[in-house]
Amino acid sequence: xxxxxxxxxxxxxxxxxxxxxxxxxxxxxxxxxxxxxxxxxxxxxxxxxxxxxxxxxxxxxxxxxxxxxxxxxxxxxxxxxxxxxxxxxxxxxxxxxxxxxxxxxxxxxxxxxxxxxxxxxxxxxxxxxxxxxxxxxxxxxxxxxxxxxxxxxxxxxxxxxxxxxxxxxxxxxxxxxxxxxxxxxxxxxxxxxxxxxxxxxxxxxxxxxxxxxxxxxxxxxxxxxxxxxxxxxxxxxxxxxxxxxxxxxxxxxxxxxxxxxxxxxxxxxxxxxxxxxxxxxxxxxxxxxxxxxxxxxxxxxxxxx
Length: 305
Prior knowledge:
Layout lengths: L6 H9 L8 H12 L2 H14 L5 H6 L7 E8 L2 E16 L2 E4 L5 E6 L6 E2 L4 E6 L1 H28 L6 H26 L2 E3 L4 E6 L6 E2 L6 E4 L4 E8 L11 E6 L5 E14 L4 E8 L11 E7 L3
Antiparallel strand pairs: 1-2, 2-11, 2-15, 3-10, 4-6, 4-9, 5-8, 6-7, 8-10, 11-14, 12-13, 12-15, 13-14
Helix pairs in contact: 5-6
């Protein structure tokens, strides 16, 4: 059976300064060492070192941290090599703004201007519906409102000469107000004959076709804002002792194989009591045109001493 002892213990054994109690196996080992000559003693120590039963200082240090999550990096400072703890956290790139386009009326699609992956500008018409019926209803409502308006004004003029009763005047005014309300409803419905882009972005999915009749609430298209991407991470909650917005860290994106600088933008408002983790969000420090939503990478944090 081999016995694991440190370099410091070997030096103390050699100088006869070891003060703690030795195990029976180590005592036997010491007796044998005392019987060896100097040359054999050196050969024996080298053999132990080569087979790894005498841990060096980095081996002793690695027992204090979880090497599956942390990495010890040697940093040269003032001509002294110092270990620096770094933690690797997985991050998912997500858009700040994304939405599903649909309609709340039954309508037939006339054309779709964009396809999956296309770019668009704010205010650009993305989807056009067949609104011939809505246009005819709008013209009819405008004509009805005009007729009611003329009737009401005529009764107003007659009322000055007491040629019309007050009741008839009030009824004509109410009818005119009603037609105006109906006209506004048709105008709002007519505005829904097209769907315009709410902001600059890209199309991620198209789930309808031209000439298809769409029911209210059905998903037609998915879009996102590709100019406002962020990195979402889940980190240990005890990092809240030192984490704060404004901290810079690098991220190595798997899909591009490149490193990018990110800055912590905000911290989640709730800690998961089961996993003792919290959500962390960061944004890219510089514009990264080759980054797409859904990519992922490894964020490297420098842990405080």
